Every structure is written in structure tokens, then in C-alpha cells.
């Protein structure tokens, strides 16, 4: 072997040795890294094992933390007291404000109180419009003074001039169900037009053999407003409205006076023993309207039922309004430095509202039950149905909300503990 060959071989040996040393260092480094990772994994496995073995204790601690954070404190008690007081005041004051009209309070149709009310209204109207002038009619329409100051309305006429009402049965003292001028709603249209034109509009009853007409199913007659005060000839209903328009064109004060007279007459009839018929029913089902009216069921009974519905809606809206005000004020006073987690604080807000509603409703249920047991017939009528509905709704929604936040809090914290390597939970 030559010197050059020996040097070349030595060089290769040196290079191989260096490569082997580098590879050895790399293997040692990787071995150290793997050992470190193995130690970390073993440590994490031990941590997870420890967490899982203490799962019950950790979950109990998390639930306790949730209860402590969402429980009402000294700051919340005044809100609860105020909210409950407002709900109780709403429940026990509302029935006093919304007393319904009793049948025993109804008056006779000619009661002096009604006459006195009419006189006072007419005198006030006369004084208020003393500067109105009268326009002479070209077709003998009554002046606005005659309309406003004559208590008599044409649709109160029940006698006919000679041909037996054309077969129409006016039902005597129950004639109000027959005449559209007495309809609490339609009367503002037909009754006002009748007053302007000295006419009466009635609805035929087919069971009595009265002729069925095409829509509108009504018949109109002119009325003698003098001492005879009776029906005269049959006239066209559309023609009656045309005459009303014509009279108003001559003097718009007549329309104003007719509306006044219509309102005054409805007011004088509404609280009498006969009352006013149920709106629209005479035009839709005349026979049924008479049967219902003859049994004493009238407009006041209908409004009384509607008042119960209205009272329920009103009390519910008032309960909701109180809840919103209390909720807004309590949320407004949230302090992150002293009140902790905001979600837990929102649960305290819900609890204040829920408890105040529950306490108030429970009180109302108890007193209503006691009054009903003692024979008070008005107990159930004055029960706070609106507040009861709101309370049931709050029970369903608030409990579901609290449960949802509880699950998010407890299981969210649990997941964080399990997944966080650096987390050490103090059990």
C-alpha cells in the first residue's frame, strides 16, 4: 500500500468515525427527548387518573360553586322584597279598579237619573255650541238644534201609521233588538243616519214570515216625529243614507248634533234593565238575536265577559312590566369585581323575578280558595289569571334557563379540568 493510499484510507476512517459519532449523538438526543415525553405522558396519565378517580368530589365541588355563585345575597334581597310587593299590589288593587257592572244596579228605562243625565248633557252641549248658526233646509230636514235638543229618536217609534207594520213584529218593549239604531256598533252608522232623516231601520225575522231581502237585510221606514210618532211609508235604505249626506252638505252641524244625540241615547239605554242588544247579531241571525236578548243577555253581559279577558291581558302585561323593570335594574347594578361570574349573576336576577311571581301567585291562589270555600261568588272572578299565566311561564322558562346555565358551568369546568395539563384542582 502506498503512502497516498494509506492517507486516503485514514481519511475515510476519520470521516466515518465523525459520522458515526454524530449519528450516535443524534440517537442519544432523540432517546433523551423520547424519555422526556414519556415522563410527561406518564405525569399526564397520572393527573388524568387522579382527576377521574376524584370525579364525584370534583363535580360536587363544582355544583357547590354554582349554587354559591347563583344564590341570592344581601344585595338581592331588597329587589326581591320590592318585586314581590309590586306584584301583590297589582293583584289586590286591580279588582278594585275594574269592578264590573252588576245587574242589580240597572235602572228602569224612565228612571229620573237617566232624565237628569240627559238634561245635563243637552244643556252642556247647548252652552258649548251657542255660537252655531242654523241653516234653513230646502227639503224640510230638521235643524241641528232640533236634532240635538230633542231627546226623542226616530228609531224608538214602535207604531205604524195604518198597515200593521207591514207584518213586522217589533217585540214591544224589546224593540231595541229589532232596530239597528240601538246596535252599540252599527247604531253609530244607522242610528245617526236615522236621526238625520227621521227614519227607522229594522231587521226582518224570517221565522215570523217577514220577507228576506238581499244584503243588506234591513228595511227602512220614514217616521213622523210629531205627536203621532209613528212609522209612515217604506223608503230605500241607500236613499236614507243619500238624504243623510244631503242634509250634512246643507249644514255639517246636523251631523255633529246627530252623533251627539246618538251617543246620548245609547248611553241612556245601556244601563237600563232592557239594555242594548249584542252588536251585529241582529243582522247576522235575527231570530237568535231576539232569543238571546229576550233572555236578558245583552251588550253589558258581553262587555263584562270581554272585561274578564281584557283584565287577564292587562294583569299579565302589568306583571311582565314589573318583571322587566326589576330585571333591568338588577342587571344594571352588576359589578364584575364583587358579583362574580356574569352568567351566575343573571341567574340571581331570574331567581328574584321567579320567586316574587311565585310568592304573589301563591298568595292569590290561597286567598281565592279560602274565599270560594266561604261562599264568596266573586272570588274566582277576581282571581289574577293574567299573573298566574305569567308565573307558570316563568316557572317553565326560568327553571329551564337555570338548568342550562348549571350544565354549562359544571360540565364546562369539568372539561377544562380534564383537558388542562397545568390545572391542579384543590379537592
Overall description:
Helix content is 63%, strand content 4%. With 427 residues, it is mainly alpha-helical. The chain folds into two domains: 66-97 and 303-419, no CATH class; 107-274, no CATH class. A three-stranded antiparallel beta sheet has the order 1-2-3. Helix 3 (77-97) packs parallel to helix 12 (342-373), helix 6 (187-197) packs across helix 7 and helix 11 packs antiparallel against helix 12 (342-373). The longest helix has 51 residues, at 3-53. The two termini are 78 Å apart.
Structural class: mainly alpha
Helix percent band: 55-70%
Strand residues, percent: under 5%
Which H/E pattern describes the elements? HHHHHHEEEHHHHHHH
The largest beta-sheet arranges its strands as: 1-2-3
Poorly predicted residue ranges: none
Number of domains: 2
Count of helix runs: 13
Q: Mean of residue pLDDT?
A: 79
Kindly, what is the distance between the CA atoms of the first and last residues, rounded to a whole number of angstroms? 78 Å
Over the alpha carbons, how many angstroms does the gyration radius reach?
A: 43 Å
Looking at the structure, what is the overall shape? Answer: elongated
Number of strands: 3
Major beta-sheet overview: 3 strands, antiparallel
Amino acid at each position: 500500500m502506498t503512502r497516498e493510499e494509506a492517507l486516503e484510507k485514514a481519511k475515510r476512517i476519520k470521516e466515518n468515525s465523525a459520522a458515526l459519532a454524530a449519528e450516535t449523538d443524534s440517537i442519544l438526543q432523540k432517546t433523551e427527548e423520547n424519555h422526556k415525553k414519556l415522563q410527561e405522558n406518564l405525569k399526564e396519565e397520572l393527573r388524568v387518573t387522579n382527576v377521574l378517580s376524584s370525579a364525584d368530589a370534583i363535580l360536587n365541588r363544582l355544583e357547590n360553586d354554582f349554587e354559591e355563585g347563583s344564590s341570592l345575597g344581601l344585595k338581592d334581597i331588597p329587589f326581591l322584597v320590592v318585586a314581590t310587593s309590586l306584584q301583590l299590589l297589582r293583584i289586590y288593587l286591580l279588582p278594585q279598579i275594574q269592578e264590573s257592572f252588576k245587574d242589580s244596579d240597572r235602572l228602569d228605562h224612565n228612571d229620573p237619573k237617566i232624565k237628569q243625565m240627559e238634561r245635563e248633557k243637552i244643556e252642556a252641549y247647548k252652552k258649548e255650541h251657542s255660537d252655531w248658526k242654523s241653516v234653513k233646509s230646502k227639503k224640510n230636514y230638521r235643524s241641528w238644534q232640533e236634532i240635538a235638543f230633542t231627546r226623542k229618536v226616530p228609531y224608538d217609534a214602535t207604531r205604524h201609521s195604518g198597515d200593521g207594520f207591514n207584518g213586522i213584529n217589533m217585540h214591544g218593549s224589546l224593540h231595541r233588538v229589532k232596530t239597528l239604531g240601538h246596535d252599540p256598533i252599527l247604531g253609530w252608522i244607522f242610528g245617526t243616519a236615522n236621526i238625520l232623516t227621521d227614519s227607522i231601520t229594522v231587521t226582518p225575522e224570517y221565522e215570523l214570515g217577514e220577507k228576506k231581502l238581499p244584503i243588506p237585510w234591513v228595511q227602512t221606514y220614514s217616521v213622523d216625529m210629531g205627536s203621532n210618532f209613528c212609522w209612515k211609508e217604506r223608503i230605500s235604505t241607500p236613499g236614507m243614507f243619500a238624504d243623510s249626506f244631503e242634509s250634512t252638505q246643507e249644514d255639517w252641524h246636523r251631523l255633529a248634533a246627530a252623533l251627539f244625540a246618538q251617543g246620548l241615547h245609547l248611553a241612556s239605554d245601556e244601563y237600563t234593565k232592557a239594555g242594548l242588544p249584542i252588536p251585529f247579531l241582529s243582522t247576522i241571525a235575527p231570530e237568535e238575536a231576539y232569543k238571546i236578548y229576550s233572555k236578558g243577555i245583552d251588550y253589558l253581559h258581553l262587555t263584562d265577559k270581554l272585561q274578564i279577558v281584557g283584565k287577564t291581558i292587562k294583569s299579565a302585561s302589568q306583571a311582565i312590566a314589573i318583571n322587566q323593570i326589576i330585571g333591568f335594574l338588577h342587571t344594571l347594578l352588576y359589578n364584575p369585581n364583587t358579583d362574580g361570574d356574569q352568567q351566575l349573576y343573571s341567574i340571581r336576577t331570574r331567581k328574584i323575578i321567579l320567586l316574587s311571581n311565585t310568592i304573589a301567585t301563591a298568595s292569590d291562589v290561597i286567598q281565592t280558595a279560602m274565599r270560594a270555600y266561604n261562599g264568596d261568588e266573586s272570588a274566582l272572578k277576581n282571581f289574577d289569571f293574567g299573573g298566574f299565566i305569567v308565573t307558570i311561564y316563568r316557572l317553565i322558562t326560568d327553571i329551564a334557563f337555570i338548568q342550562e346555565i348549571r350544565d354549562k358551568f359544571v360540565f364546562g369546568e369539568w372539561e377544562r379540568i380534564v383537558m388542562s395539563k397545568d390545572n391542579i384542582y384543590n379537592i
